[in-house]
Amino acid sequence: MYDYIKGQITRVTPEYITVEQGGIGYQIMTPNPYAFHAGSGEQQIFTHLHVREDVMQLLGFRTAEDRELFRKLITVTGVGPKGALAILAGGMTAQVVSAIESEDEKFLVKFPGVGKKTARQIILDLKGKLEGVAEGPSLFRPDAPEPGIGANQDLEEAMLALAALGYSERELAKIRARLEQEEHNTEGYMKRALALLLKQG
Fold first, then answer.
1. Among 5, 25, 39, 100, which residue has the fewest nearby CB atoms (within 10 Å)?
2. What is the pTM of this model?
3. Range of the domain at 39
């Protein structure tokens, strides 16, 4: 229904961004809200409208390739929109596609909500059907700290966003001490945290 929205990002939360266009603020769920920055001029967000009996959600992606992978993932039994967003949160579209094509179940089960059965189903359903999906740019930009925002606040925002994606308090506690020794903006903490979470297990 909507291919993309171009507008000003006015709000970034752990779960969604708000994009203002034509006097309307659109609430858009994204894999990593902190990959977007409020007040950065007009931005283009590729969208997917998810409709269920009890909910209607607008989901947004930085690239058309990320959106395409999301759409492929939600066709798999056992993978809902929340699970697909968690898989895409690290901005590693190429690595996810590579894991599916190489039947790397160990990589896939590290995402929240993906067990061995679901990982196997993803591989069975999508292997050989993802040509052209992994050509987009990385979700993450260089993670220089943003002026005026303390590292602790950035870390807390990243932890909230990771919890919203489905990572447990126990999983996040394992990596928090390591992250507290580093200095990033929120997006940078998300990138490091996801890299550490995917190395665990």
1. 39
2. 0.74
3. 4-61
